[in-house]
Design brief:
about 230 residues, 2 domains, two-stranded antiparallel sheet, 5 helices, 11 strands
Length: about 230
């Protein structure tokens, strides 16, 4: 039905979680200044005792951090070079300042979509891949099942993989005053959604972990997972 290259990467997400980042309350301003010196296009969206939320440049990379987590995400990235560099720098500056040496959890998530107008065809395709086994006992309860989805975790020693897939049917409603216009060309209303989430299952020592290398590796692994399961 499709090749991996047909999919659109709608969102990429990176997150680390940690304990004892209490220096957040003492050093939030210092972190913001250091980040802004290196990335002048950084804009503060929200700063509070709970978290700091920032956005970087035309790429609109969102970044937030607090006393127990740091994360970034970007919607519809054309390529991940800038995302990886900004995420790595932010991670380094924040965790160095907070004096964090171990990570409770590291995650890197890829949310893909594929436009397809015929929901029944999408359901049949996913059934042929072995994900939906809808019995006749269920069918007698109604006319048909319209938005099935599946979620499972592939457990591995260090990095496990969460996979979600299903029929996507949604709408986008935006009300803006004239003459403001919004580019909605990339927004997909109907089709397939495939979500691949890589996350650590053990404590990660910072000295053994590189952000750019991790994202590069999991981006390739996301393609392998999708091609193995769906293509």
């Amino acid at each position: 039905m499709f090749k991996f290259g047909d999919l659109t990467l709608e969102r990429v997400i990176f997150e680390v979680r940690f304990h004892n980042g209490y220096l957040y309350w003492d050093n939030c301003g210092k972190i913001l200044r250091t980040l802004s010196d290196k990335w002048p296009d950084l804009v503060m969206r929200e700063v509070s005792p709970e978290r700091a939320h920032l956005q970087f440049g035309e790429a609109e990379i969102d970044m937030s951090f607090s006393h127990n987590r740091m994360g970034t995400h970007q919607d519809y990235p054309k390529e991940l070079g800038l995302y990886k560099k900004f995420t790595s720098d932010s991670y380094q500056i924040i965790l160095d300042t907070l004096q964090i040496s171990t990570l409770l959890r590291v995650g890197n998530r890829y949310q893909y979509i594929l436009s397809h107008d015929d929901t029944d065809e999408v359901i049949e395709f996913l059934k042929t891949k072995g994900f939906f086994n809808i019995s006749e006992k269920i069918r007698v309860l109604g006319k048909k099942i319209t938005q099935p989805s599946v979620r499972f975790v592939i457990e591995r020693d260090d990095i496990s993989v969460g996979v979600q897939a299903g029929v996507m049917n949604r709408s986008l409603e935006i009300s803006l005053p004239k003459p403001i216009k919004v580019d909605m060309s990339a927004f997909v209303e109907r089709g397939i959604s495939i979500d691949v989430d890589f996350f650590s299952t053990k404590i990660v020592e910072r000295g053994t972990f590189g952000v750019e290398e991790f994202i590069t590796t999991q981006e390739k692994n996301a393609g392998k997972v999708i091609e193995k399961l769906f293509v």
